[in-house]
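Holo model, 6-O-phosphono-beta-D-fructofuranose. Inputs:
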Amino acid sequence: MRQSSLVVVAMRLPIDDSVAPDGACEWRRSPGGLVSALHPLLRQTPATWVGWAGGSGPAPSLPDVDGVRMHTVPLTLDDLRDHYEGFANATLWPLYHDAVEQPEHHRRWWEAYQRVNQRYAEATAAVAEPGAIVWVQDYHLQLVPGLLRALRPDLRIGFFLHVPFPPPELFMQLPRRAELLRGMLGADLVGFQRAQAAHNFAQLTTKVLGVSATDRRIAVDDRVVRIGAFPVSIDTVEMSALAGSPEVAERAQRFRRDLGDPAHVILSVDRMDYTKGIEQRLTAYSELLASGHVKVRDTVLVQVAVPSRERVGQYQVLRDRVEREVGRINGEFGRVGEPAIHYLTQPFDRAELAALYRVADVMAVTPLRDGMNLVAKEYVAARVDDSGALLLSEFAGSATELSQAYLVNPHDLEGLKQGLLSALEADPADVTARMRAMRAHLHRYDIRAWARSYLSALDEGGSLLHRLGGP
Ligand code: ADP
Ligand code: F6P
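Output:
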């Protein structure tokens, strides 16, 4: 077995399969932010990425992708049902997002969560060379740091949670709360999106495990676990360059024409998820149409909502409700050839997404709770002419950094309506000043800065990053 000095562990491998012209299956690097951030470093080491390749059969043996070794972890249909759809996405996901939907608890899901985490830990132990750096990602794998430390105490282990970490009153509902906390404490560094999450974690470890904790350090057995906030970001340069290209500018113009050349385009781009506040936004928009504050000929809403986790009941119910409401609003307020809402459930390629961002005078990002929300950052990066108003939920992690956005509380219907109107009617000079400040921030704190700050904190002595020249 080939071993690496740097190992990234995530539920999914960063690749997509596609069919080559000769009909053969090809694996390509997927366009995710994490892989873009780490790729320069992963390529130099060489490193290994441990994860699931999709499907439910035996793990395929994959070639290296762009110089990065792919180590596959097999998952069965039962694993997917009970670990991914069950414990990860019907217990932890709703609980970590303020329980906006009711979390479900089933012993069978917990058993699958343990079993799958054990499989990832064993796969990682097999590919990490002595003293390697291992970076474990997200809520699907919270037990991996502890399980891995038991197998390989020589490793330097990092854990990063991409989603919110809830306050004690919510986390305390989890029947297996102590095991989950102990799992995370197997890491040397536990990273969160926001300082509040690190604070919640510190409080919980004291309350549940009785250990001594501050918002920066937790004493566990004979070790110190460091914790902190490392807000994830995007490839700002790449998105700005794409959005600034003549092809994307031309595509944006065509989009505007196809939309009927309205005075205002409002855009929302979400996964179809109950945390994203899609229904609340539709209600606000419908009331603005009904009161005449917004007129169909003048303003269009483009709602992109790509289906997600479609086998989980709460996601099926949400999609039905959203589609019924879009139909109602279009039926009531649309005209022939002029729908009130352009509703799209398709995936878009990056250039089309950039063109949509460029056409949007107002970008409405109003989740009820979100770890970060990269869409908000992508919109800002795409506004190369410093125009465009970002309407942003206070409950998105990105609101901490993008404080010049038009901030709203999406639970407050009147506030949401007012926020939309303010963004639509804002003075262009105010819009530009806000956008400039946000763009300057994102150019400084991009995805590479994020990976560098996390990995240099994890690699305290600095030997790995120093040897490699940093990501
Ligand atoms: P989450 O991680 O909860 O899905 P984020 O906003 O942080 O939410 O990230 C969503 C990512 O998915 C962004 O990079 C965005 O560009 C991408 N995305 C969302 N909708 C689509 C779509 N219809 N087609 C292609 N990419 C999409
Ligand atoms: O942001 C949390 C997250 O789980 C990401 O890890 C993932 O890319 C995204 O949501 C989409 O979720 P899924 O992998 O379940 O499709």
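The mean pLDDT is 94. Residues 265 and 325 are 20 Å apart (CA to CA).
Archived with the compound record.
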